[in-house]
Every structure is written in C-alpha cells, then in structure tokens.
Amino acid sequence: QVQLVESGGGLVQAGDSLRLSCAASGRTFSNYAMGWFRQAPGKEREFVAAISGSGSVRYYADSVKGRFTISRDNAKNMVYLQMNSLKPEDTADYYCAGGGDTTAWRIKSQSTKGVDYWGKGTLLTVSS
User: Could you tell me the CA-to-CA distances from 71 to 11, 42, 90 in Å, in that order?
Assistant: First the structure.
C-alpha cells in the first residue's frame, strides 16, 4: 500500500516563500516519478511540477516556472516543493502525486491521468 503524506501548508503573504514536503512509503521510492498538483476552490486539479525517479528531469507548469522548485531525497523517501514569490492565485490545496514509472513525462503530459497515487493534500493560502 503506497502512502503519500503532505505537510507544510499554511497562511502566508504575497511575496513570501514556503516549502511543502511529501513523505512516501510502500514501494521503492527511487523507481517512480513524483509530482505536485493543486486545486483551487471551484477549479479542476492542475499540474504544478514533476520530477523523475532519479531527480535528473523536472517539469513545471508555466504558471510556476521560475518561482517553484521540485526536488526529492531518495534516501529519505521525500519529495519537496519550494515555492518562492508566492501570489494570491497560488492559493489552493496542494497534492503530492506518485507516478507509475520512473519518468516524469507521463505525469506532465497526462496530468491527473498520469498519477497512480495521491496524498490527501495540504492547504496553502496566500493573502494579498
């Protein structure tokens, strides 16, 4: 049974930085790509970032490129999302996502259909 548990959400002001963390368990972590998605109230869940199993390949949504950085620590079974220059439009529930293979492209190209496992989410609120 794969489990993904997010942490690190909260209330911040515009321009602040925050790091989300996701702890994974239940399978060989380095064999699988990981990602982050978000869902704002009344909107569909959308892709934010993905990282390959080795950590060498990363993809980002255009809306966060240059501000967010996805990383992973395979020794600790952790994936992170460093978020800088936060904007009110970044307000959403953020979900950790586990892919079905090592390549991040599947998550990037197929969005939610490319995800095999989901965390329960952590809420980020950015005030103006």
Answer: 22, 29, 19
- Sign of CA pseudo-dihedral 28, 58, 37, 110: negative
Q: DSSP code of 111?
A: G
Structure confidence by residue, pLDDT tens digits, 22-74: 999 988 899 999 999 999 999 999 999 999 999 999 999 999 999 999 999 99
Sign of CA dihedral 52, 30, 84, 36: positive
Beta strands in the chain (DSSP E): 3-7, 10-13, 18-25, 34-39, 46-51, 58-60, 68-73, 78-83, 92-99, 115-118, 122-127
Residue 20 CB-half CA count within 13 A:
33
Contacts for 59 with CB less than 8 Å, ≥ 6 apart: 49, 50, 51, 104, 105, 107, 108
CA of 90: how far to CAs of 34, 41, 61, 64, 126, in Å?
20, 11, 12, 9, 7
Residue 102 CB burial class (10 angstroms; 0-12, 13-18, ≥19): middle
